[in-house]
């Protein structure tokens, strides 16, 4: 049993194996300063991290990036995670992952595949992903996953420029044999924040999408599970980001930094521990970075004493910083936040903006937003 000094075990580890990626999605949540290959952890260090994660109590690992299969050692990485006793979920664009590579991943013990699609229509999908021919490769990869007998989740990040085709995305998930579809409205960190004006949906689009999801959940019960991540910019209460800072989840960046969420590297004033220097247990249980926003004692007004405090944990620290410059502020997605009006302003600005993207690129810094 955990005490105040010993937090309960995390449920899952997000292993960001690399920031390399053949796609250039403008909504990527990776930090705008992407990690170069020379700084990436090696296979042996990842194997140690997986054993430490399992020993700490993690049950599953999400192998992500960038594109995790851009690493040549990806079968060895999967094998190490599987041998550590973790349930292995590959989060992939599918573009580099088919053929012999997929067979090697299956042989290494891969348990599950989560495949991203950018749209249901190939021309638009390739434009959003910034890679010609990418969508066709994804469809082919999904068929291979089905043939290999692996469970498949389709992940569709939705926004103003693809949301009207949500019914077709649901049809696509069914056609590809997915058991689960994640319909995730863009969360605005990293590259996504830089592209917010081109991505924010209108209220009418959001309402139509929500109705589509509700109807599909009813009609497809028992055939397809649909997860729905709603957009903060129209919310009155924030999401419980990561289930609360340092409560259920930890991430390791390509360069080995241990983070409470995938976007935390962009927060200033933190000395995030690194697996090259400390154990995962030390990072989780002892580091100041994980302790800083754990629980409710750190909360400012109006969170302090609020009846929702242990439900949403004050919302998202990364969003609070991105919008107010203060990671300890109440998430502006909350209607009780003194900064809530910033979301309305962003929606108004986006309505007047063009659909042009700033594509994700190594070594490129998009113009700051705000
Ligand atoms: Fe959540 Fe804080 Fe808003 Fe209360 S005031 S609903 S705890 S974000
Ligand atoms: Fe970092 Fe929400 S994404 S706390």
UniProtKB/TrEMBL annotation:
Domain Radical SAM core: 7-223
Keywords: 4Fe-4S, Iron, Iron-sulfur, Metal-binding, Oxidoreductase, PQQ biosynthesis, S-adenosyl-L-methionine
Pathway: Cofactor biosynthesis; pyrroloquinoline quinone biosynthesis
Keyword match S-adenosyl-L-methionine: yes
GO biological process: molybdopterin cofactor biosynthetic process; pyrroloquinoline quinone biosynthetic process
Enzyme class: oxidoreductase
E.C. number: 1.21.98.4
Record Pfam families: Radical_SAM, SPASM
Residues bound to [4Fe-4S] cluster: 21, 25, 28
Gene3D superfamilies: Aldolase class I
InterPro entries recorded: 4Fe4S-binding_SPASM_dom, Aldolase_TIM, Elp3/MiaA/NifB-like_rSAM, MoaA_NifB_PqqE_Fe-S-bd_CS, PQQ_synth_PqqE_bac, PqqE-like, Radical_SAM_PqqE_MftC-like, rSAM
Family: Belongs to the radical SAM superfamily. PqqE family.
Self-association and partners: Interacts with PqqD. The interaction is necessary for activity of PqqE.
UniProt name for this protein: PqqA peptide cyclase
Native organism: Roseicella aquatilis
Name of the gene: pqqE
